[in-house]
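Sample A.
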Amino acid sequence: MSDAHRRQDAESRRTVLIALAANAAIMVVKAAGGIVSGSSALLAEAAHSVADTANEGFLLASLSRSTREPDDEHPFGYGQERFLWAFVAAIGIFVAGAGFSLYQGLDSLWGGRHQESKFWIAYVILGFGILAEGTSLVRAVRQTRGEAAAGGVSLRGHLRRSRDPTTKTVVFEDSAAVSGNAVAIAGVALHQATGNAAWEGIAALIVAAMLVFAALSLARNASSLLVGQAATPDERREILAVLAERSEVDEVLQLLTMALAPDHLLVAARIDLKAGIDSEHVEDISTDIDRAIRDRVPAVAEVFLDATDRDRFAQAERRPLGLAADDD
């Protein structure tokens, strides 16, 4: 692992630790306040914080487990554990957060018991939640914006294309948390103003919907990485450019790529070399291409080149080079 990647992992660990501390504190305060005040919106937000706290624990575990050295059973390392635990975190948001918020909302709308006083408790706790989770969100966004600037892309573009699920998960979670707290405050205020507790139930249902959206977005991204997501279109173009620059390469017959970790790519290419190149020269060419690809695309960790005769590589067996991949 390069020094840059180590620094990025250290930054990710600090971001997750800050989020974990914030969510753990808020979880306890919201749960106690929800029980005392009888606010369904506050209890829904407490469930949200429970899910977020557990998820930060999953992300911390993934940061430690993913850095283990390759072994005989896992020759490409354990980097994909980052993707696995991000997927588990998404399930946690969906089940623990959205599920309990949905229950609280429906219970409130269908005649659950409600206390009509102590609204100030809900306001104080939800305000504290916005402050604490907002602090965590600012930290996550700051780190993500720095990574986006280093890559020369916008923050939104980086969040969409980044293979690192750690800070992305924190950004999504904290964004949903801050928005959920604001919605819960609105529900409590409408309950106080109208005397109708159904407003808190509606707020809890809105929080549930927000959490479902966040969970599905994170799960979609993590599942794509788990099943072997390719390099980005820009990375594939750079790899093809390296191959095209070599005068010895007559044609690139096939290019396959796969993410082994957020900062590790596997590259496998079948290339047709020009006629008359002896075997010793083929070895030198392969070594030079390997080095050039790694220099051009730093995320590349493994390169496999297969010199294949074009006539033996039947047209029916060809696969697309992958430049037309969806960019969204």
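Sample B.
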Amino acid sequence: MLNYRSVLLVDDDADDRFLFQEAINEIDASLIYMEKQDGVEALKYLKETEQLPDIIFLDLNMPRMNGKECLVSLKNDTRLASIPTIIYSTFKSPKSVNEVVQLGADFYLQKPVNYHDLYNSIKFILNGEYKSMISF
């Protein structure tokens, strides 16, 4: 049983968004999937929608507003601060992980290199299993 029923992916890479959506549909076709191309678009959507996502996957490297800036805005908004936010990025260094944890990220997921690992990683997150492990 999945812990989350609606997912927002914020990522500027169209291929990454496509593969993420494919994995979501394969995990559970009834999941509500939303996507935005950058932090500006995501924040605008989140401030205007009545139906907030249960969880947000947030890329770090995006134009206009990067993932760190978006994360800070999310965590400083009382309506959005409690939504679990997963950093989802190709680059992972101890410094970047520590920085986003300090900013309020709930987990840091390095983008998997193949679809099988992507599917398993997303399912792991949506099952809530990330909460029980030390990821940083």
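B remarks: Residues 3 and 117 are 20 Å apart (CA to CA). Helices lie at 14-27, 39-48, 67-75, 94-103, 115-126.
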